[in-house]
UniProtKB/TrEMBL annotation:
InterPro entries: Methyltransf_16, SAM-dependent_MTases_sf. Pfam families: Methyltransf_16. The lineage of its organism: Eukaryota, Viridiplantae, Streptophyta, Embryophyta, Tracheophyta. This is Putative N2,N2-dimethylguanosine tRNA methyltransferase. GO terms for molecular function: calmodulin-lysine N-methyltransferase activity.
């Protein structure tokens, strides 16, 4: 299930190199780097509208991060936030639960030379309405990687996505099936609330595409529209 057991994962993003320290031996899944996070960053790098200005880019609007506000849910070691920051998502809040904060902070600090900035972090438990308010939604871009694995956290996760995103915003989710129960509930709920688009596999980065990993884009259903 883990991408690699190596204590340090390196991820090139254009000319920069992220170096992420993981601890696979800890009690928390958030201290490991999961393949979904790498898949999302390399997909966004592949279709970066800045580098891909002259090419026929189906994701030019989606991945145009200029002046967008972003938030990551369940960031773990922060790979996706750091990668998307390097790709232009400069206003980003990186969130996770308290036990994961030391690993997140350590990796943000470790990558400060590449990022040239310390990214904003916040503790956020998906079901916590008070914390949602403190995060000051709406966000144009809500993203998460490999966060659907416990049935009991599915409803708060979907509510958090819905509550944080702008009406014309998007959720980008890099997904891998972890639990059949969580999977079933998650997709039932998502299809009720969102229009769901799956990125074709051949559009992922060829060196960072795994059979079992998919990227989805969610948009809020228009009022009066049902699933
Ligand atoms: C499998 S890890 C993925 C970490 C990272 N996104 C990655 O892909 O490397 C799942 C993450 O979701 C976070 N998480 C799980 N339940 C949560 C909850 N109820 N509220 C906030 N974060 C949660 C965990 O702390 C963990 O960091």
């Amino acid at each position: 299930m883990k991408f690699t057991d190596s204590p340090v994962i390196e991820l090139p993003v254009h000319d920069a190199l992220l170096s992420i320290q993981q601890d696979n031996g800890s009690m928390h899944v958030g201290t490991s780097v999961w393949p979904c996070s790498l898949v999302l960053v390399k997909f966004a790098e592949r279709w970066d509208p800045v580098k891909c200005a002259a090419c026929d880019n189906p994701y030019a609007d989606l991945l145009n991060f200029a002046n967008k506000r972003g938030i990551e849910l369940g960031a773990g070691c922060g790979v996706a936030s750091m990668g998307l920051y390097l790709l232009g998502l400069h206003d980003v809040v990186v969130t996770d639960i308290a036990p994961v904060m030391p690993a997140l902070k350590r990796n943000l600090k470790r990558n400060k030379p590449a990022l040239k900035k310390t990214l904003k972090i916040a503790q956020f438990y998906w079901g916590n309405e008070e914390q949602i308010k403190l995060l000051k939604p709406p966000f144009d871009f809500v993203f998460a990687t490999d966060v659907v694995y416990l049935e009991e956290t599915v409803a708060p996760l979907v509510k958090a996505m819905e509550g944080l995103m702008a009406d014309d915003g998007v959720v980008m989710l890099s997904y891998q099936l972890r639990s059949p129960e969580a999977h079933k509930l998650f997709w039932e709920m998502c299809h009720d609330v969102f229009d769901v688009e799956r990125i074709p596999h051949e559009h992922l980065h060829p060196e960072y595409a795994y059979e079992e990993t998919d990227i989805y884009v969610f948009r809020k259903k228009k009022k009066g529209q049902s699933s």
